[in-house]
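Problem: given the chain below (371 residues), write out its structure.
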Amino acid sequence: MASPSETWLTDPFLARLHSAVRSAGPLRSISVDLTNVCNLRCTGCYYFAEGMDAAAPSDDLDEMDTFIARERDRGTNFVTVVGGEPSLALEPLKKLHEAFRINVATNGQIPIPRDGFEGLPIGVSVWGNRETDRQLRGGGKIDVFERALANYSGDERAFWYYTVAPGHANEVEGVVDRCVANGNRVLFNFYSDVESRGGDLDYRQGFDTVREAIDRMILRYPESILMTSLLAEVVSTGRLFGAQWGHATCTSVTADHPVNEDRVRNGKPFNRHFKAYNADLRSTRRCCTGVDRDCDSCFDTWEHFSWVMLNLRSHLGSKSDFTSWLTTMYLFYFINGLVDAEEGAMLLPEIHRRTMGERSKDRCQTNLTCS
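Solution.
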């Protein structure tokens, strides 16, 4: 007798997504800080708030060669580059790009060259409109968003990693309009307020209005939004079926780090290969975005992607749930250049059509015009 997932894969669209992901193969991933310095000091940046810059990188590029060889021997095939500002460490970044499939997050102030970095998925950070980015990230002086727009205009490698605070939902439409007009797609993230500034930055007020704005953007730009309505709900609420997000359920923990001993023994799925490396390329931390912080403040989309992807079993209750899992898998592979880019662009609207519930559509169309 065929399993439920095999039955659902008789749907040609789902079979197409599944085949693309299977052809790309499984990921054995790590995260790496390339540097412990940055050319900005963004309000509420987890990296500096958590003291992750304490581990300094070596000036010897041979250290990177040694690290690459060690990780290859361990079976690593995918690297997320985080940490300080990677555009300040282009030589080690190039070595990683040549050795692994990688993605990189940047503040966009220094463009990563095309030469030598062809096909590199680049997540360019934005936290709001011109004034919000100037205040939260540019110290009230630097037009962070404007510079990044200019540096990545029409760059097919780049997508915007748009972190929205609860009180800034009204900015989503204008920011996304500009990003799409710039020739780039958009993936959403949710502001954590690790410095407890409160007010319009306070995550405890919830992200309902932000999700409504995201739904409107999905309906307006289904070919350009890299997050489904369902995934936005998982990330921003920390709920996945009966599970609650936290250290006990996070799947992106350094498996052999002492602080994670109880976590890896509690029976919840986790990425057994994953390690979050500090900039010295030797020491590791609890997870890629935390040292001591309360996991209740973590709305990191990258980590929640993993949470969904490693919980296939929870998504086998219905075709709708399985579709949610499979489209999340496919989006992660598409964002990171692991499946055919032209096909992915063509499939995005149908992914959104299948994963935006009728309630989301009705709510969006009732509250505001979406076109």
